[in-house]
Design goal:
alpha+beta, two-stranded antiparallel ribbon, 4 helices, 16% strand
């Protein structure tokens, strides 16, 4: 099942980029949003993905204090927006091949 899990992480990355282009997002919100799409991620899975997207300059973040706690709000960078745009083109092609009419 590790192969399937790895495949789904690619989908999760696309979800994150999509939502981070729509506006600032934070970890707990992302976990709840992704759960609605069938991805049950723990913080130990989500945060390394966020850190990797940031390290690869696809996300940026801003720290804010909310109810006395530090929270990182992530947004897609220009490179993240471009990566998502490219992924959309590839997804359309893939969907046309694998999804029935």
């Amino acid at each position: 099942m590790a192969v399937i899990r790895n495949l789904y992480r690619g989908f999760v990355r696309l979800h994150i980029l999509y939502h981070a282009t729509e506006g600032p997002v934070y970890g707990t919100w992302l976990m709840e949003e992704l759960r609605q799409h069938g991805y049950d991620l723990s913080p130990g899975t989500l945060y390394p993905i966020l850190h990797a997207l940031h390290k690869n300059a696809l996300l940026t973040f801003q720290k804010k204090t909310v109810n006395g706690k530090q929270r990182k709000y992530y947004r897609a960078t220009a490179a993240g927006q471009a990566a998502l745009a490219e992924a959309r083109v590839k997804l359309r092609g893939l969907a046309a091949e694998i999804l029935p009419d």
